Amino acid sequence: MSDGSLPRPPTDSGLVSVARFLPSTCAEGPGDRTAIWVQGCTIRCAGCFNPHMWTFRGGEQVPPDDLAARILASGTEGLTLLGGEPFDQAAALARVASAVRQVGRSVMAFTGYTSLQLQKAAEAGRDDVAALLGATDLLVAGPFLRDRIDTVRPWVGSTNQEFILLSDRFPHLLDDVQRAHDRIEVSVDASGQIAVNGWAELELLDELLSIVGRPGPRSPARDQL
Ligand code: SF4
Questions:
Q1: Per residue in 207-220, pLDDT tens?
Q2: Is 56 close to ligand 1, i.e. is its CB under 6 Å away?
Q3: pLDDT, tens digit, for every residue of 70-129?
Q4: Digit-coded pLDDT (tens) for 24-83
Q5: Ligand 1 pocket, mutate which of 1, 36, 45 (most atoms under 8 A from CB)
Q6: Which end of the chain is more exposed for a tag (fewer CB within 10 A), N or C?
């Protein structure tokens, strides 16, 4: 892929393809946030922790206005977009992000593209990319590199990934991430299903899951088990 030529997603239905909706979490960005994992990713990093979110098939197809209403109803401080690849469905997500920001809440987006790729795509006429960048306060950019695992900063998987402030919403964040620790969050729903999100090293996850009687993951994971 050359800079400025991001691939077009296979479909552009105007809907958001949602792989997972988590109403509230303190493990996916600053503060209490609603997290959405989108379905579909064209980047396909080796060692990706969510390969089942690569395909553009499946997922819940949700109109942007309906998704924004669900996010706002959750009452959190903001929205975090993960994936899958949010910028592979940037047009629909830009509508969601704009609605979240209109009521004063923040938007954080993870992407496997570099910030330079996104910037050049926007300059080359990708209005969808420009719109989602314009509705994002905090971008975490860059592909996951499994030989560069980041054990220091919160939320990110590898040391190449950059925190980029696109607004003045988080003025101290770049200092804070140097002092913060990874956080892992475990929840059990009424049916007994266990979900783990956040980022942790394999040994910790193995220990944690053995306590609750579940087999360990094959790779570092921030996904539902
Ligand atoms: S780490 Fe993110 S960008 Fe990379 S393949 Fe997985 S979902 Fe896609």
A1: 766 766 665 554 44
A2: no
A3: 999 999 999 999 989 999 999 999 999 999 999 999 999 999 999 999 999 999 999 999
A4: 999 999 999 999 999 999 999 999 999 999 999 999 999 999 999 999 999 999 999 998
A5: 45
A6: N
What's this model's pTM, rounded to 2 decimal places? 0.85
Identify the residue whose C-alpha is closest to ligand 1 atom 1: 48
Strands (DSSP E) found in 41-165: 60-62, 78-82, 106-111, 138-141, 162-165
Q: Is the CB of 57 under 6 A from ligand 1?
A: no
For the chain, helix, strand, coil in percent to 5 are 30, 25, 50
* CA within 13 Å, CB half, 43: 27
Q: At 93, list the tokens.
A: 């997500």
The reply to whether ligand 1 has any atom less than 6 angstroms from the CB of 143 is yes
Tell me the three state secondary structure of residue 188.
strand
Spatial distance between the Cα atoms of 11 and 70, rounded to a whole number of angstroms = 23
